[in-house]
Structure formats: C-alpha cells, structure tokens
Amino acid sequence: MRSLFLIPFMILIATGAFGAELVSKIAAVVNQEIITTYQLEQELDKMLVDRGALSQPQKEQARRQLLNRLIEESLLRQKIEEVGLRVSDEEVDDAIRDVRVQNKITEDQLKEAVREQGLSFDDYREKLRQQILRLKLVNREVQSKVDITLQDVREYFREHIDDYREPATVRLNYLMLPDTSASGGKGLDELQAEAAELYQRLQQGENFSSLVEELEQSGRAQGGELGTFKEAELTTEVRQALSELEVGSFSSPVTTAAGIMLVRVEERKSGGFRKFDEVRREIERLLQEQDRDERFRQWSKQLKETAYIDIRI
To answer: What local confidence, expressed as pLDDT, does residue 235 receive?
Structure first.
C-alpha cells in the first residue's frame, strides 16, 4: 500500500505536546521554542525500530541528524504561524478522499490501516493537516518562484539526448527441447543430436512454425511466440546466437538451463530517439522538481541563518 500520508514530504511533523513533556534537559532553543532531549530520544527510538540496532558512533550521528530535523520543523512551524497559514476541515477531508482514491481503499480500510500504524484517526487527521500546512508554506515561499522556460527544456533535451534513446528490440519465436533428465527423460547430451537434426531440417527449407506444431503435438518439444525483448533482457547465449540474424532467420541450437532452444527472428526495431514533444512535459516536471528542491534548500538555509538557534548538547 502506498504511504497513507498525502505526500511523501521531506519534513515530518514532531510528535507530542511540548508543555506535557517531562523535560530532563534542553537540547536546543529555536527562537522562543524549546526542543528537549526527551523529544530527541523519542525520535531516535522510532528510528531504531525501523533500522534496528546501531553502533554508538552511528547512534550519535543519527541523533545529530534528528536534532537538525527537529530544528527545521520548529522553524517551519514558526514561519507558518508568522504568515498566518490555516487549513480548514474541508481541506483535510479532501486530502483523506485523495488518499483513499490513490490507494483504492474504503474509509473503513483506511481507518484500520491507521490503527495498525498506532494512530487514532484524529491524530492521523492532524498529521495530514500539518503536511498540508507545510505544502502551503513551500508553495508560498518556493514553488511560486520556480520558473522553467521552453529554452531550459530544449537545452536539457539536447544535453541529455542519450537518456531519451529507445533501445533496439527483437520479437522472437522459439522451439525448446526440454531437459527432462531429472524425471528419467532425455538430458542435454541426447537432446543436442536431436536439436542438430531439427536445425538441418530448417536449413533445408522446412517451415519453423509447422515444425513447432509437429513437435508439440508429439510431446517432444514446446514453442511458439516468445515475445519482444530489448537486447539487454536476453541471455548472453541467445544474444550471441541472434547477433547476425536477419528477420525470418533462425538460430543454431542454443543450450540453456531448461534445455536446448532454436530461435527465429520475427521482427527487429532499431530504436532511435524519442521526439521532443513526447518528452517535453516529462523534462519540465524534472526541471521544476530540481529547481524547487534547490530553492527549498536555499530558503531553509536562509531561515536558519536569520533565526536564533542555541544547541545545548
């Protein structure tokens, strides 16, 4: 199941009400807000549940990363309050409907999934509300400033043209003489002579499909349409056997783990490059995401630089 939250956002919400916590030590002061060691250890405990045991150096590194994240969350909450952003109950309801549609689940199934995560549904609604608030803040401070031009898209397409190359493909039919030695039948040694005989019959002009049908009816082989493949998807043995074959040609016998196979080339497509109009929207989304991420990093950095942050551990 996809994540139950509205968006896979990089900033998670902090848990617990600050005033209700038993504070043993102050981990950091962010403007007028306090982050306690209790909060920090709670977040670390959650990480250990997901990751398992960590060495002491790893745990210290994780603790520093978590404290940095809690500081960022605190700054975001303060900024949201400063600019007066709000999320209505109707917006939360719409977000929940979107989660249900994306995951193709009923309301009861969503509530059950929330319970399995150890949350009440009210807590889940509050988490969604906080995520929407953060999305609104990012849209206000960052997304609205993202500007990708058609020239930007064209330049990216030219510079990364190889990323939009379509691979060559080949469509194949096959004839397989299966290795049945495990059940007392023929092994590869016996099958090689039989495969050589079939290959000779094909060279003398016998129809490949007719031969497949004949052998299938007698129970000696299996075959038919194998499918369309990119070169990289084929085994080394098959790729080598097909390397010089034209459409309508068939390979010499190829030994595989399952038996001995003969393959006929039904169609080849050389690939080529996707057209610009086909990939334009895809590139636009990519560049917008890159620009948004970079602007967010710069904005977050500036937010930290202008804040009062006192780390005490």
So the answer is: 86
